[in-house]
Amino acid sequence: MNTTRRDAMKFMASAASLTAAAPYLSAAAAAGAGAVNSVDYTMNKLWHGVCYYPELWPVEDIARDIAEMKKLGINVIRIGEFTWSTLEPREGKISTQFMREVMDKFHAADIAVVFCTPTPTPPVWLTHGHPDRLFVNADGERLIHGARQHVSYEHPAVRKACFRIVEALAKDLGDHPALIAWQIDNELKCHVAEDFSPAAIAAWHKWLQKRYVTIERLNEDWGTHMWSTHYQSFEQVPAPLKTPFLHNASLSTAYRLFNRESIAEFSDLQCDIIRQYSKAPITHNTNPAFNVSHERLFKNLDFAAYDAYPSSKEWQALVFRSDMYRAAKPGRPFWLMETSVSHNGWLGNHSAMHPDGFLKAEAVLVYGLGGEGVNYWLWRQQRSGAEISHSAVMSSWFKPTTGYAQVKQVEAARKQLEPLMIASKPLVPEIAVTWSDHARAMIETEAMDKEPGFPETYGGLVQLWHGLLFEQGYHRDVRFEGATLEGLKLLITPAMPYVSEEFLQRVIAFVKAGGVWLIAPGTGTRTREHTVHTDSGMGLLDAVAGVETQYVFPLTATGITGTAGDKTLNFTGWCAAVTAATSDTKVLGTLNSPLVPGTAFLTERRLGKGKVVLLSAHPTGDEGKVFIKNLIQGYAQALNIATPFVATQGTVVCPRVDKQGKHLWVIINMDGVGGTVNIPANTRDAITGQIAATTQLQLGSYEWRVVSV
Fold it and tell me: What predicted TM-score, i.e. pTM, was given to this entire model?
């Protein structure tokens, strides 16, 4: 018996002991994680706000701004993220008086404040004459002052200045009665990725020493005798700047992980300072494309927030991000911290204007899926800078824009929604897709094999699987790798090259209790250090799935097909061709090629009360999509997962439950062409109280309804 197989059997035995004490507490309990609604939080308002920049306009304009906001029902502003040069025009000369006076005025008008730390835009005095403090990109280019995110947050002088301004703000404004929340920085790592400055590289060497302890361990884990990259000290390990060909995969992935952990620690340290002086909750505004570890970033934040600027054709991005950030902080509603009232734009680029009614539908969707706040970027069109072509509520010359009337529509909807949303919470989904920040870093190092039109990025691939659930009408989550599995019946894990023992322990407990784990293509074929397994094709996954991996190879453009039932399928991407290794492993799909004789791409193994399903190659084309949908639907039905919503394409159902256990459906037409939703008999309109006359609800363009089921 080889070493990995023996270790796998020991692992399976230890995993079995997790659930031996009780039939089923939950995967979360087995892992020591919190419950789905672990946060004791009561929502008492739906926030409707704008990003506001009083430092850019005459002080006399504030009263006029407040009066106009009150007309629109704006009840919160977000301020401060770009004010550093206003607050500290000379190094060490900090005054928060202006911002306090602004907050006083808004508090008097009963408009709340989310205050951002101004660290994304350091003033010129911090970097002028100090090139060592600037950010260096992967091409070795040193960025300069002039936009934002241009400094190295690893540099001690930069960190000292950042923390000094944060402390001054927290100390002076942390107890202000207008303050309802803090936001750390703004869109961390939106415009930049890994930092290659000298300060970052010095921090990298310290990170390596902490992670590996000895250089011998690093050399062993990375296999550094390849191409004679063997190191004698941590200081010799380079950052992956340009080299004649390519760096070791282990090095490239580790550098990404280091940077993303470091930026999260930068956020943590700001939180630590703020919490010394303020009890207000703290968040950060991100989105899946930014170069951060989302799970690690939100670990020490109080609630999640995201940004989204979709055109009316891209509305599904709102569904995906709401599903992802709703699950990021269980039991705590998220915020859409930035979106456009009409169109997105910056120098040389702009998107199409929203059609009438889209903004209202966008806001109702976010509130329905678990959002507490919707915030527009921005209140008044910027008269200068790089984003002068971006839409706003008011023009630079202070006239209502095309978005003004749309904001009115949102406020009318918010008033009707608020009592219903306060009295209910999003229904906990029974199906989830796994999001792994480690997997994302690995796939950025080692790109996926793909055919044209297949997702280019890890995020795109997760969204593909999320979309398959959404299109079928299933209520769904996107859960971080380390999240609880409580409440789930079906977990889908795509493209996770490294599967940790900790994750496997929790999933095995989940499966043994009756869940189904669908291991989707691209999962398990790499080690933690981004090397190839030496004793089995998928490491511990082979034992868990009850298979033996024979080959791992790229399928795209090979012409190799597969057979499952009466279906012949084409494939794209990498494939792990396997054979059954245990008597309880069923082969459900085989590969058709003399190159990989007698191998399978789809297997099923019963484990306790549940099943482990391995789909090790991605079926492609329309028939492949239908096949995957049917595969999901089959297991969902077997698990008695709630019947999917039957709605026309472009119409979304957001299920919620109130304190009495009654279900509410927030239904929105998002594509602007109208649609229908099947509803149970005797369904009542939650706003008018009227009982529906039929079991099919008709919605017009961007129309929304809330029904009591």
Answer: 0.94
